[in-house]
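dumping this here so i dont lose it
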């Protein structure tokens, strides 16, 4: 008992005189006195040698010693942290670190611009699933299983019988809108589509479309033309020339493709327009009566028009991008060019 009290007195004096500085010295103090093999643990282990009638007094002395060591450690740690904070103070008058300005993807910029233009004309936005069933993607659009036009939209099938596939166009969204709404209908359908094509500078296995649909009474081809004239002037400027060429689409009749004068050569002829001075930007036409009847819409009472454009093609003309693969390669050098376009 006497030997234990003598040791406690010696260690108490050493603790009171200790003045470690810095994290390493403070940590060494903790290990020396309060570590798993430290002095406090060692002294407590010697309690087994104390006479039973003296253990209460010895325990009280040890507890006081332990509290002293813990209090000393806490004060040393607080002092060390305060000194560290003083060392880490920084000058608020110095200029901050440069933070680079991000940018939106060019396809997102153009898609947003297309949507905003058609919103001015009262078109709502409609969206649908990327994985679609055969009926909504093909059958409802007047494309039965044996229709040769399906060869132009070779796609990725997920399963067959029943057939589920990655949609080849956002016309499937139009189908779902006609299925759930009654005329008048005025929507645009932006989204990603997929086709089994060889990836090159002019083609990709996925791309983006914006399709439009307007169904009401007394809708004519003149309404379609004026709508698309307005879009072109808003997107490319009033000086751009427009022409319509007869075409064929199973879901529209009559159908037409729309060209604009080449923005790169100003109609004089170049590689982009194949030296014709014109570039195709979209397909359009009056909704086929069969499509209307597929959804219980009276084709004798209602008529409508539809159109569809590739966002990549519009972006190519808007920003003169000559390779479709650049859109999906995530090359920061390419994306940084559109910082000013946000």
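and the seq i came up w/
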């Amino acid at each position: 008992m006497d030997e234990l009290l003598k040791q406690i007195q010696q260690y108490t004096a050493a603790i009171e005189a200790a003045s470690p500085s810095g994290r390493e010295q403070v940590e060494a103090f903790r290990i020396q006195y309060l570590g798993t093999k430290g002095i406090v643990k060692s002294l407590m282990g010697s309690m087994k040698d104390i006479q039973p009638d003296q253990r209460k007094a010895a325990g009280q002395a040890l507890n006081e010693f332990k509290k002293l060591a813990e209090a000393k450690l806490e004060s040393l740690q607080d002092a060390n942290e305060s000194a560290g904070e003083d060392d880490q103070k920084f000058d608020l008058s110095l200029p901050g670190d440069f933070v680079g300005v991000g940018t939106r993807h060019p396809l997102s910029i153009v898609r947003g611009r297309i949507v905003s233009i058609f919103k001015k004309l009262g078109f709502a936005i409609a969206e649908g699933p990327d994985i679609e069933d055969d009926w909504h993607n093909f059958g409802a659009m007047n494309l039965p299983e044996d229709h040769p036009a399906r060869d132009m939209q070779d796609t990725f099938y997920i399963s067959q019988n029943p057939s589920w596939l990655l949609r080849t166009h956002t016309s499937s969204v139009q189908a779902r809108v006609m299925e759930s709404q009654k005329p008048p209908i005025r929507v645009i359908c932006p989204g990603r589509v997929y086709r089994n094509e060889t990836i090159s500078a002019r083609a990709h296995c996925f791309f983006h479309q914006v399709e439009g649909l307007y169904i009401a009474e007394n809708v004519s081809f003149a309404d379609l033309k004026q709508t698309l004239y307005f879009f072109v002037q808003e997107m490319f400027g009033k000086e751009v020339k427009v022409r319509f060429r007869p075409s064929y689409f199973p879901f529209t009749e009559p159908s037409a493709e729309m060209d604009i004068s080449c923005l790169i050569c100003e109609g004089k002829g170049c590689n982009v327009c194949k030296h014709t001075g014109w570039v195709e930007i979209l397909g359009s036409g009056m909704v086929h009566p069969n499509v209307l009847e597929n959804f219980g819409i009276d084709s004798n009472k209602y008529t409508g028009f539809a159109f569809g454009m590739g966002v990549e093609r519009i972006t190519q003309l808007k920003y003169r991008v000559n390779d479709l693969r650049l859109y999906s390669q995530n090359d920061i050098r390419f994306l940084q060019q559109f910082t000013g376009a946000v």
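Residues 55-88 form the longest helix (34 residues).
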